[in-house]
Each structure stands twice: as C-alpha cells, then as structure tokens.
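Sanity check

After download, print the first record. It should look like this:
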Amino acid sequence: MSKLTYAVEVQLWNVSAYSTTWTDITADVIMPGLTCSSGTTGTTIKDRVSEVGTCSFDLNNSESNSAKLAGYYSPGHANARAGYDIGCPLRVRFTFEGLTRTKWYGRIYGIAVEPGTKLSRRTRVTAFDWMHQANKYTLKLPSYETNKRADEALLMFVKDVPVQPLSLSFDSGNTTFPIIFDNVDYRTTAMAEFQKLATSEIGWVSTKHNLISDEVLTFLNYVNASARIADFYTLPDSTSGKALNEDATSLLNEDGSNLLLDQTSHQSFDDTQFELAYSYGNKLYNHVSVTTYPRNVNNTVGVLFTMTEPVMIAAGATVDWLSVVYKDPDGRAISVCAKDIVPVVATTDYLFNTAADGTGTNITSDLAVTGIYGVNNTEFTFTNNNASDGYITFLQIRGKAIYLYDKVTRIAENEASIAQYGLSEFEYEMKYQPPPLTAQTIANVILSNYGSIQNQTVGETLANNPNAELITYSTRSDDFVQRFLCIDCNSIVNVLETQSAIEGTYSVRGWSFEVIGNNGTTGLSINETLHLFRCENSTSWIS
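Expected structure tokens:
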C-alpha cells in the first residue's frame, strides 16, 4: 500500500492580502487528533445550506517542537511564532501519488494554550471555514430588488462580506424571484439569507475544494442539486490496468516502469467497505404543507412611518436612532417593506422645536439629519446644532410600500398513508416564491416522493427503502485513499448494503474526518464520515 503523506500549512504573511507563501507546521501538529468537517449534518429537504466547517488539532508548545522554543504557539509570548494569530488562514492538504489536494481551508478563530510547564504543554487550535463569515456577518440594509435569480442575489450578499471566499462557482438559478430582500433587517445574517434563497430555489449552497482553488463557494440550482449519476474518480496506480503490446506483454516507460492506463470508476460503496447508520420510515411525510409569500406592490408614494412620541436631543448632542420600522397605516399587513424611499425633507418630513408639544421656537434648520434607507427600516442619525435642547415633534418616512397581507399555504395529503401509519407532517417555506400554484406544485412533489412507505418513484423504492444517513470508512487501501481525496460536498456516490436492503444513489451533503493513526510505514490512518441525502427522481424539484 502506498504511503499517504500529508501537510498542514498555516499562512504567516499579511492575511488581508492573501499572500501565496505558506509555512508548513506539520512537524508540530500532534497526531492522531486532527479533525475536519465541511457541509451539513442535516439530511432533510430543508437542509440546503452548509453549516460552519471546522478544523481542530493540537500543537506542540514545548521546547521539543520544531523551533525548540517553549511558548512558540502562545500568542503574546516572547517566543511566539511570527504571524501565528487569530484570523490566520489555514489549510489541510494531502499528497498521494505525486498529486497534492487541499481537503480543508479556513481561518484560525480559537487558540487555547494549556497552562503550566509540567503538563503536556499543548495549544489547541480551532479554525472555521468561510461559512463562519456568512453566519456572523449581518447585512447592511440591502436595497429592494426585483426579478433576480438566486445566484444573482447570492453574489450581491457575498461581495459585501468583509472576508471574501477565494473563488465562486454559481449555477444560474432556474427561478426568477419577483421581489427579494423585502424581509431583511439589520439583524439578518448572510447565511440566513442564503437559506431563504436556497429553499425558494430548492438549490444547495456549500463550500468545497478542488485542484485549482483551496476554497470554492458553490451554488447548485435545483436541476444540478438533483443529480443522480455517481461521480468518477481515477483509480490509483496499484489497481489501475497496464497498457499492453499486441503480444500481451506490458508497455514500459523510459525508466522501465509499467505504462498505466488512466482508468476511472464510479464512487461506489458496498457493505464490505463501510459502517452504516440508516433509518427506516423517518422520511415519511403524508401531510405536506408548503408556504409561499405573495406581495402587493403600491406604486404610489405614501407614508411608511409616522413618529408617535417626541424625541429630545440635548444642545450640541448627536443621537443615533436605529431601526425605524415601516408600518401599514391601516394595520392589515403582516409585514411592510418599501422601494423608491424619499429622503426626508425638513419641515415636510420632520420638525424640531424647543418644546415637546411644538409650541416653542422652531429650530428645524438646526437639526442635521442623516438617513440610511433600507428595504424595511431606516437608520437615522440626528445632531442638534442649536444652543438649546430640542425635540423632534414630527417625523415621517415616505416611499412605495410592498405589503405582505398574508402568506399562502397549500396542503397535499395521502389519506391512505395517514390511515395506515398515522399523521406525519412536513412543513416547507419558500420565502421568495410568491405564486400559490408553486406552493401546491411543490407540496404535490414532496408528497409523491415521501407520502407513503409503499411509495415507488420511477421504479425505484424511496420511502419504503431504508435511507442511508451516513457511512464511515477508513483509508485502509490505495483505492480508499483516492476516494477520500476526491470526495467533497456535492459528490454523488452509490451505496449498496444488502443486510439493510439499501441500494441507491446519494448526494454528499457533508463530511468529517479524523486522523486516528500515523504509521511511519503505511502512512496515515483516517476515518471519514459522509452525511448523505438520497437522490430523488430527476424530473422533480426535490434534490
């Protein structure tokens, strides 16, 4: 068996400039114990966005490390390694048969130094992938947008995140949404918006890695998210066929080695190769409700907000008054957003007076007003440039309102299944899908795939066949090493497990691995777990 070599590399240069120089710290990584994850552990129709991927390991922080310095991995220590700090990029790479691949990429966000000079003297490092940025970054009041696909909307969000992914691979969305960003406020994270877009498209957002880029933020539309043909991988040298002469003797390279064929095989796992976690009937949904959100657009400028109580601003003071939320003056809409918002005009949209009841001196001209006008709220900054205390006695915001009076829910049921197995409900929301007919279509599609344990789709058993939830395998051969290097989020694999009656094609929605050994002769011993989602009928919208 070939030896699987590895390297864990940390970038020690200007992290904001993404220097191309990497420093290998593998010698100080304590093995076994390196763990990495990517994608999502969820395997339902609703799980359409990767969770935050993690990487963790221990570093040798004693004088026996590569620098012979105690405290080498203690930030702030006199012996601390230059450039090693929170925010430092980190990647985990593997080399096999002369080819090096990045398996994980992210940034360090946790450094825990074990105190004491007599203990193990380790430093625990925790790193997160780019989805951590999307999970933490709150959107800055995006503008109302119309007729955008999911990929176009995703790009608008991604470009505003301070730390950018290294590269993008976005499918063109198959659905054009009439209105987006109408329910985004100052607390909405980029990841939450990814989820709205992905569930409305029935697509899939994840990070992955390839030979060209260490990190690729990926969006699959509903067609590609429902791919059903297992991926190919290149066979390792030890199992690849050899090129032959006409007399059946081997063709040789100049160095006398055999000339190998460039053979490939499907990513397939059978019951001799993995440990399986599975379930039977947990994806039985015989009462399905799908909700869409039709909007009513008012193309006439009207009042979006009117202040009800005066606000005092001391002489010379500046007050930030955040999140003035738009309202329906009739009180009927469950939410209101707006477009074409009119910047406030003195005396028309606001008044400033020395008395709270407005009977004092009008000092409106001394009130400086700055507004950041968002799709469903405005952030104001007020500065009183008068020598006297003042009161904002009147404030309004005008624009063209978009009202959501009520969401629309459509239901599909399998009465025979309910009678036989009991009620099993499933709810699915499509925040940016307005047509009620779409809700009914999707409800019917979900029911057709999952409405009965006896259900069949295109001759392939789905709900009545146990579902593989995850498989765990080890890199115990060259072939498994090659598979390990090629498998990532979005990979498609075949699974066969005869004892559990499982046979089907699955999408890898998430993965994790752990280095459980490091033998100097045979190389690393690694266990990888794949979180799987069954590929449905490609003619449906469900991936």
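If your output differs, re-run the checksum step. Summary of this record's structure: The chain has a mean pLDDT of 84.
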